[in-house]
Amino acid sequence: MDTLLLSRIQFGANISFHILFPTITIALGWMLLFFKLRFSLTGDQKWMQAYMFWVKVFALSFAMGVVSGITMSFQFGTNWPGFMEKVGNIAGPLLAYEIMTAFFLEAVFLGIMLFGASRVKSWVHTLATFLVAFGTTMSTFWIIVLNSWMHTPQGFEMIDGVAHATNWFEIVFNPSMPYRFVHMMLASGLTVAFLIAGVSALRMLWGDRGEDVKTALRVGVITAASLIPLQILAGDFHGLNTLEHQPAKVAAMEANWDTGPNVPLVLFALPDEKTRENRFEIAVPNGASLILTHSLDGVVPGLNDFVDDQGQALHPPVAPVFFSFRIMVGVGMAMLLLSWSGLYLLRRHGAGGVPRLALLAFSAMSFSGWIATLAGWYTTEIGRQPWLVHGVMTTQEAVADVPAGMVLGTLIGYLLVYALLILAYISVVTYLARKASRGEPYSARSYPRRGETGLRAQATGEAL
Amino acid sequence: MTYFGDPAVWLPWTFAALMGLSILIYVVLDGFDLGVGLLMPLAEEAEKDRLVASIGPFWDANETWLVLAVGILLVAFPPAHGVILTALYLPVFVMLVGLILRGVSFEMRAKAPLAQKPLWNAAFFAGSLMAALSQGFMLGLYIMGLTWTLPNVAFAALTAVFLTVGYGFIGAAWLIWKTEGALQTRAISWAKRGLWGLAAGIMAISAATPFVSERIFDRWFSFPSIAYLWVLPLVSALLVGFVWRQLGRLPRAHDRAAWRPFAAAAALFTLAFGGLAYSFYPYVVPEKITIYEAAAAPESLFIILIGTVFVLPTIIGYTILSYYIFRGKATALKYD
């Protein structure tokens, strides 16, 4: 394998590992704020107990996100120096604004949010929780702006082979940004909804019938059931936006080789780039035309339009894009089915009476958001190939001139560390749930509300 | 934009200064929390939680200064960013794995089953060690001009050890300030043992840097600069002496002066850093690329500067607020 492919795999591995944790912290921050506010308003201990459980998962995820994020900022230079040399004038300010408006905000107030409850007034602590959630969202915004600009660049001119900004409004609000931002925020919301529902279901399977667990299950299921239709809608809009700006990507997602009307929706196939056809195809007639153009005989672009005179493909590799897209949609459909069944069961039996089978299904789906999110990112990022910045520079142009062996060696190192840490992360989240379901230590505690004091003096909350 | 003269001159200068400031703040702040990680194996089992508690609310934000520093290098001096980081590919990898291990262990040691705690403590130490050694190595190689020759690597290995001991020293100084009783007494003895590393490191770098290039030699040893530059090593030597004296007299009644070793350590780091900055300016890649050659387009830098003018004071403000909220001796870390 050459340096380019290895560098791509390495960057892919790093960013895949990284995105798992922001996907959790972005929405979990807002969820914790919700728990905290509910507690302030009702004084019901269950909200604070839920907060105290999930804030641990948040702290753990946040730490994983920070340290894996540092890796990203260095990899631009170690593996892709050409990127900043060519489009640094655009990417630079966007990254700078992410660091300045988001990273510091979340990192500093995280300390107060986690460890400051007994040192500051309750409203300051709530404010710190808000600022952390706001910071993670700002971070999402800026990084999505940059990523979207790489897909749909505008607002710049090339002078001597280097991009110079001409209109920052156009750069920030580039055509795919709003769709991608909404899609990612909803993805984070769904990931957290299924994580909360799944872990709460697991705790109930282990015999934990605490009010906080039942409430968390309810919050998880209701959030999931309300967000998934929005996500399907947002995904559809995003797809149409991609069709307009990156037709080659859509052609690969659908494994459609020839441009034309009445294109079938391929449910399954093995796309073969050598013979440029699909093998073992199972398809619904007119399906792709209907979904992408909302009419049965709409014209859908085909991959064969994106081949140069020498027969060199200018479209992304078909199979990975085709399969990741199907995995994402498949997980989404499973989410729709389970969350709506869950909603029905909650209405019928109450949170305490949800059948065992449904609890099992929810706990099995605890990390389903991760799979869908990764599959979605693979679809869009591999779908951008061979471009790094669509139409401006290819991935090949940006890669560093370092020996392939060194990239391979460090890649193996990263993969080992990441595999170990993901295992550790999942097992610790499970362990925290197991410990909490044995009733230690939250259920015996009571937390003071705003204005109340005294109880805090006997606080025996678990030391970190 | 033209009020201050040519933006192609003052913008790169401003960003170089900002980058220098970020690196300095990073080295002092993450220096003490990496140092605390390095001291973990020396502490008694029962003290380890207190060590971690002393840096708990801060380490996250401390590491963000590294992201800002490399971020400024990335956005303000894009070609230099590529040259420096590809040359430092391997030490950067070691540092990143170290920082990952460390940050994760920080959380894991408290949340994983008790039986795994020693394992995560070990990972916390190992991560801190990898990060400190690789940063020291990168410093040495940078000074030597970023080329992998045997003498340069040997010098870098030396600075790796010195910076690691130096971090251990500032970590111990932090513990003297933030802890009390037996642990504080032990921290005082750690600091005494670590001071030599910092002093020797500063001397080694000061002695080697002028011989890297004639240009740097002339900056230091030609008239008139030599007439006032001798103050720098003198003040550094006085500071080392001051710390040594302080350490001998601590702990004092009512915990007086416990902050002084840390303040002096921060001052020492600042002086050493100032000396380096003086040597290398205006180069961002030593003797190859100046900050003016490497700078991004003025209009892009200007856009970043507008934000920086508002945001950086805010960041410094709430960082100070956070240190103020968690002032006093470190207590057990609790979420409530």
Distance between the termini of chain A: 45 Å
Q: Give me the Rg of chain B, rounded.
A: 20 Å
CATH fold name of chain B, please?
Formate dehydrogenase/DMSO reductase fold
Rg of chain A, please? Answer: 24 Å
Describe this protein with a few key phrases.
heterodimer; A: 464 residues; mainly alpha; two-stranded antiparallel ribbon; 14 helices; disordered C terminus; B: 336 residues; Formate dehydrogenase/DMSO reductase fold; 1% strand; globular
Report on the architecture of this protein:
- The complex is a heterodimer of chains A (464) and B (336).
- Chain A is mainly alpha-helical.
- In chain A, 69% of the residues lie in helices and 6% in strands.
- Chain A has helices at 3-42, 45-79, 81-115, 122-151, 168-172, 177-205, 211-245, 247-254, 287-293, 318-349, 356-364, 368-382, 395-398, 404-437; strands at residues 156-159, 162-165, 265-272, 277-284, 387-389, 393-394.
- In chain A, the strands form 3 sheets. In chain A, strands 1-2 form a two-stranded antiparallel ribbon. Chain A has a two-stranded antiparallel sheet with strand order 3-4. A two-stranded antiparallel ribbon of chain A has the order 5-6.
- In chain A, helix 6 (177-205) packs across helix 14, helix 7 (211-245) packs across helix 8 and helix 8 crosses helix 10.
- The radius of gyration of chain A is 24 Å and the shape is globular.
- Chain B has one domain: Up-down Bundle (Formate dehydrogenase/DMSO reductase fold).
- Chain B contains 14 helices and 2 strands.
- Chain B has helices at residues 7-39, 45-55, 59-76, 78-87, 89-111, 117-143, 150-178, 181-208, 214-221, 225-229, 231-249, 260-280, 291-294, 298-325; strands at 283-285, 289-290.
- Chain B is mainly α and 336 residues long.
- In chain B, helix 5 (89-111) packs antiparallel against helix 6 and helix 11 (231-249) runs antiparallel to helix 12.
- The longest helix of chain B is centred in the N-terminal third of the chain and has 33 residues, at 7-39.
- Chain B is 79% helix and 1% strand.
- Chains A and B meet through helix 2, helix 3, strand 2 and helix 14 of A and helix 2, helix 3, helix 4, helix 5 and helix 14 of B.
